[in-house]
Amino acid sequence: MPADAPLIPASDRGFLLGDAVFETIRVFGGRILELPLHAERLRGSAAALEIPLAGDVEATLRAAIDELLAADGLAVPGIEVSVRVTVSRGPAELRGLLPPTAVRPTVVVQASRVLPPPPELLARGLHLAISTVRRDPLSPLAAVKTTSRAEFVYARLEARRRGADDALFLTIDGHLAEATSASLFVVRGSELATPALACGILAGTTRQWLLQWAAGVGLQAREEWLLPDDLFGADEVFLASSVAGVLPVTRVDGRPIAHGRPGPWTLRARSDREAFAREEV
Ligand SMILES: Cc1ncc(COP(=O)(O)O)c(C=O)c1O
Question: Is 147 found in the same domain as 30?
Answer without folding.
Answer: no
